[in-house]
Amino acid sequence: MKVLVKQLMSKSLFTINLDTTLDVALKSLNANSIHRLPVVDNDGNLKGIITDRDLRLATDSPFLPENNEDRLEKLRLHKVSSIMKQNPVTIEDFSPVVEAAKLMRVTNVGGLPVLDKKGRLIGMVTRSDLLDLLIKVLEPVPPQS
Q1: What residue ranges in the chain does DSSP mark as E strands?
Q2: pLDDT at 61
Q3: Average pLDDT of 100-115?
Q4: How far apart (Å, rounded) are the C-alpha atoms in residues 141 and 6?
C-alpha cells in the first residue's frame, strides 16, 4: 500500500507572517489547537516554522515577569522572525508517506510543511497524521456477514 503525503496532509493551513509578534503567534496556536505554524513572507513563501515549544521556551524565561499578562506584554515586543527555525525541513506532496515518517524520525520534528513541485507551501503532515494512518492500517477489519 503506497500512500503519498498529499493523501494524508492537512490542507487547511494556518500560517503566520514574519512580522507577526510572538503574542499573536501564541494566540493563533491556542485558538486553532495546533502545535506549529509555518512562517511565510508577504508572497506566501515559506521562510521558517515556529512551534508551541519555541513559544513556551520564550515565555518560560527567568527574565520575564511571573504574571501572564506581563509575559504577553513582553512577547508583544518581539517578532516571530526572531525565534523561528529558519529553513525548516520540508517534504514534497508526491513523496511516499514512509519518507515523511523517516524524515520526522531522523530530524526529530513533529510535523513537516508540504511543498508542491514549484516549492509552494500547500499543507502540513504531522505525527498525528501518521499515527492515524497506522491505526487505520493495523486495525482489524470486522468480518462481513
Answers
A1: 16-17, 36-40, 46-51, 85-86, 91-92, 111-115, 121-126
A2: 61
A3: 96
A4: 25
Q: Which CATH number fits domain 5-138: 3.40.30.10, 3.40.50.620, 3.30.2020.30, 3.10.580.10?
A: 3.10.580.10
Q: What does the pLDDT look like over 26-66, one tens digit per residue?
A: 999 999 999 999 999 999 899 999 998 998 887 766 655 56
* Closest to 34 in 3D by CA, of 123, 97, 121: 123
Overall size of the chain counted in residues? 145
Q: Distance of alpha carbon 61 from its chain centroid, rounded?
A: 23
Q: How many CB atoms lie within 10 A of CB 97?
A: 22
